[in-house]
């Protein structure tokens, strides 16, 4: 499974014109396809489907699960999805490449479930100098690695970066083929299976750096606000259902994630699901990491400076809080 790629921009833009007819047809019909992939903050969509919460809110949703997160990004950018669960980072990358997207919901912040895990003898990020480090190139865990190196006074040139798919990177680390690895839950569980290994940096160290959101095709938001509202309402209904039925919810989400209920529970602290009040605060303009517009500017600067995108994405109209405001 892949999650959280930052490299979509140019590739996604190349397909936009070719797929515009499909996107227009989808908007005209009002049909709604929602994509998600492997991340604890997005598995609640599976609960929503299995417990009939979309139907309760009178919205017909085709839920599409992607083993490859990158494929879900491409699907939204090319008009093959109405909306997708993706990081703010990846939305910015897509928008930079020409995709027209609107963020209507903040699902969660990563608060520890993205990790840089190192072999025994490596006590801190600075100790990675000269070491072999694996991560999926362009993913948010690559981004986390760069942030951690920067904080330690290093750059990617100070390590031997080994680009591998996330599952392969975790396996290579366990096999002793690399000295450290950047991975996300549930692959953190795999990587920590190496005796004596530990996380030397996590997303908890960079508050607000990795927001996870629901991004719609902008035209669909303009044409079908009632359906968008119903999806956002369903999210908060689902969060309430999970709180009232924790054991059953964990079983549903763990099964979808391919892990045990016990392992899934360990991810709880590392993914902070946002309440309506936290959403509203995040959508407000601000000057610190708790605000989406501040974080978007910071991420955009980082993406350009590291050449992960060629041009800074336009931020005007990217965030639309009216749907969260209208939640009952």
From TrEMBL:
<dbReference type="InterPro" id="IPR010067">
    <property type="entry name" value="ABC_SsuA_sub-bd"/>
</dbReference>
<comment type="similarity">
    <text>Belongs to the bacterial solute-binding protein SsuA/TauA family.</text>
</comment>
<keyword id="KW-0732">Signal</keyword>
<dbReference type="Pfam" id="PF13379">
    <property type="entry name" value="NMT1_2"/>
</dbReference>
<protein>
    <submittedName>
        <fullName>ABC transporter substrate-binding protein</fullName>
    </submittedName>
</protein>
